[in-house]
């Protein structure tokens, strides 16, 4: 599409339409204002509701007890405790093991669910995503019901063991590997592997020498993100670890809530920030390599029909196992045992009533406040609170996260511009790894009069959805960003050449393409907000408690009635998140992009 020069800076477009171009200075000014707003709004939001609370809490830990100047003696004091080194060691050990097993099991799953076509593939994709968006408290309850004495796997005596925590972390992060690796594998050009097979390479050698190197950026990116999630696990370790096992995340919570030792919590928060920064650096570099690989891959899906058996070429000869049999069998075992068994056990045990019978008593009790009035609200009221708060948080997360994705999707020509975009990308990802406990407690000590406003946000009812939005923003960015970066910049340049303003370029080019991943972004934001527990446990008032908070309170109260209600409430929350993700997958369809 071209525009021939016309009078007064105008051009002649298609059909003889006169298109008036904006002057260069005016166009640059409009673009500058647009990008300034797009970058300024997220920076202001995260500066006030993330950076300020975190820095304020950490700073309090480094101030001398008498209110004097800077005091770094807290580092020596905290690291002189054997407990600190044990906690750091347990955190790194569970993160390494959880990452290794997630990758080993997730790569075959990525092949089956994204490289192969079969009926029900979309439903299975949604199913394996459900554990990731489940509240960590629900994951802990599901595995506790599976491994506790009298449970289906109680004979293994894994309850409150390190192995139980690692398995639960793999359950939680399996879908991250499947979606990240599968999103690239689905669109990887198959001709290179076919050429290797034609030259006599075995299937394994073709995979090892051709496909695996192409997938390495996606695998490394997935591993770094999984390591981040495993090292910052909170609810899972809190429920399954008992008193023997803990992580930096749970230790920050203990030091803050039980001992009120802000100095120790601040030191541990700094340690966690170092781990987070390292993981995000690796993730950003590998993600950039993965996006370059996506640029070189086919735009449409190159999946093939699932081949479990290869029929013999001689008439009547028996078939032999096909190349898809082993990964399909392994994926089936993972889905049935690792994902299906804990969720199935949680569902089944929710129908067990005191006395050993079966019935709907636990679900009927959801309309009460539990045994001995364990709760301030009923579970159904808490469910209403969760849905209402998650809706507000989703709107905030999608607006702010969408602006972040729009800004960091730019590809400046200058090296300085590229470094600035990379820095912004890393900054906006920090909420993924910083302790939600740190954020929640930081809210309480800073947001009484934010920016000098005459309003106390701690009593306004907006603090919980804001905290949940802060947690969900990075997932919105990771969902929308690949789609925006896949846009051919020549489309924007052509629109600008024809006189379109920056706002119109966005409405006509970026907006319609970004909408492809918007449904999935909304689904992730809503599901994650529904299940957020760390910050919400600090901020939710008794009369506005959410489902995860109510479930954790029921677990901590004695009595079979309360435990049965916790199981039933966990099923309700799991069904809500599963429904949200199924709808999000249907909105996504088979479009590329939108993966972690």
UniProtKB/TrEMBL annotation:
Work out whether the entry's keyword set contains Transmembrane helix: yes
Is this entry keyworded Transport? yes
A Gene Ontology biological process in which this protein takes part is: transmembrane transport
- The chain positions of domain ABC transmembrane type-1 read 88-281, 383-584
Q: What GO cellular component entries does it have?
A: plasma membrane
How the protein sits in the membrane? Multi-pass membrane protein
Q: Which UniProt keywords apply?
A: Cell inner membrane, Cell membrane, Membrane, Transmembrane, Transmembrane helix, Transport
The record lists the membrane-crossing segments as 29-52, 87-114, 126-147, 162-181, 218-243, 263-283, 325-348, 389-408, 420-447, 459-481, 517-540, 563-584
**Subcellular localization, as worded in the UniProt entry:** Cell inner membrane; Cell membrane
Could you tell me which PANTHER family the record lists for this protein? Answer: INNER MEMBRANE ABC TRANSPORTER PERMEASE PROTEIN YDCV
Provide the family line: Belongs to the binding-protein-dependent transport system permease family.
What protein name applies here?
A: Iron ABC transporter permease
């Amino acid at each position: 599409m071209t525009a021939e020069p016309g009078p007064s800076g105008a051009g002649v477009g298609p059909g003889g339409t006169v298109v008036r171009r904006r002057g260069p200075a005016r166009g640059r000014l409009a673009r500058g204002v647009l990008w300034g707003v797009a970058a300024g709004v997220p920076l202001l939001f995260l500066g006030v509701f993330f950076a300020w609370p975190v820095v304020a809490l950490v700073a309090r830990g480094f101030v001398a007890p008498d209110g004097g100047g800077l005091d770094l003696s807290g580092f020596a004091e905290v690291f002189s405790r054997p407990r600190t080194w044990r906690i750091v060691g347990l955190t790194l050990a569970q993160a390494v093991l959880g990452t290794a097993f997630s990758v080993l099991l997730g790569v075959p799953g990525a092949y089956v669910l994204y490289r192969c076509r079969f009926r029900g593939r979309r439903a299975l994709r949604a199913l394996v995503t459900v554990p990731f968006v489940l509240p960590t408290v629900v994951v802990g309850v599901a595995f506790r019901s599976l491994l506790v004495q009298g449970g289906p796997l109680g004979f293994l005596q894994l309850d409150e063991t390190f192995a139980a925590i690692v398995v639960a972390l793999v359950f939680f992060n399996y879908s991250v590997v499947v979606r990240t690796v599968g999103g690239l594998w689905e669109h990887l050009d198959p001709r290179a592997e076919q050429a290797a097979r034609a030259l006599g390479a075995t299937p394994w050698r073709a995979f090892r020498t051709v496909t695996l190197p192409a997938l390495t950026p996606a695998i490394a990116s997935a591993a770094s993100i999984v390591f981040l999630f495993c090292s910052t696990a909170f609810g899972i370790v809190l429920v399954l670890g008992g008193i023997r096992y803990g992580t930096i995340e749970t230790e920050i919570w203990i030091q803050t809530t039980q001992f009120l030792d802000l100095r120790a919590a601040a030191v541990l928060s700094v340690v966690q920030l170092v781990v987070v920064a390292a993981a995000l650096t690796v993730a950003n570099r590998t993600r950039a390599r993965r996006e370059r690989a996506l640029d070189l891959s086919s735009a449409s899906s190159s999946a093939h029909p699932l081949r479990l058996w290869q029929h013999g070429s001689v008439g009547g000869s028996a078939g032999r196992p096909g190349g898809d049999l082993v990964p399909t069998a392994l994926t089936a075992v993972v889905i049935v045992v690792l994902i299906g068994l804990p969720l199935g056990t949680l569902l089944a045990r929710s129908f067990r009533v005191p006395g050993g019978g079966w019935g709907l008593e636990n679900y009927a009790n959801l309309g009460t406040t539990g045994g001995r009035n364990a709760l301030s609200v009923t579970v159904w009221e808490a469910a209403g609170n969760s849905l209402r708060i998650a809706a507000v948080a989703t709107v905030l997360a999608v607006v702010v996260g969408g602006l972040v994705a729009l800004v960091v999707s730019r590809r400046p020509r200058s090296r300085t511009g590229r470094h600035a975009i990379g820095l912004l990308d890393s900054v906006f990802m920090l909420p993924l790894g910083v302790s939600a406990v740190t954020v929640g407690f930081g809210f309480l000590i800073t947001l009484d009069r934010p920016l000098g406003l005459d309003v106390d946000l701690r009593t306004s009812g907006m603090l919980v959805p804001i905290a949940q939005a802060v947690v969900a923003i990075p997932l919105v960015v990771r969902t929308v960003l690949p789609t925006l970066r896949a846009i051919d910049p020549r489309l924007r340049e052509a629109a600008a050449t024809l006189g379109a303003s920056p706002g119109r370029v966005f409405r006509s080019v970026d907006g319609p393409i970004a909408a492809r991943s918007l449904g999935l972004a909304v689904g992730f934001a809503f599901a994650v907000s529904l299940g957020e527990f760390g910050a919400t446990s600090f901020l939710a008032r008794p009369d506005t408690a959410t489902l995860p908070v109510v479930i954790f309170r029921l677990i901590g109260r004695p009595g079979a009635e309360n435990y049965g209600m916790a199981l039933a409430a966990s099923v309700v929350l799991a069904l809500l998140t599963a429904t949200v993700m199924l709808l999000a997958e249907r909105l996504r369809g088979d479009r590329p992009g939108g993966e972690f």
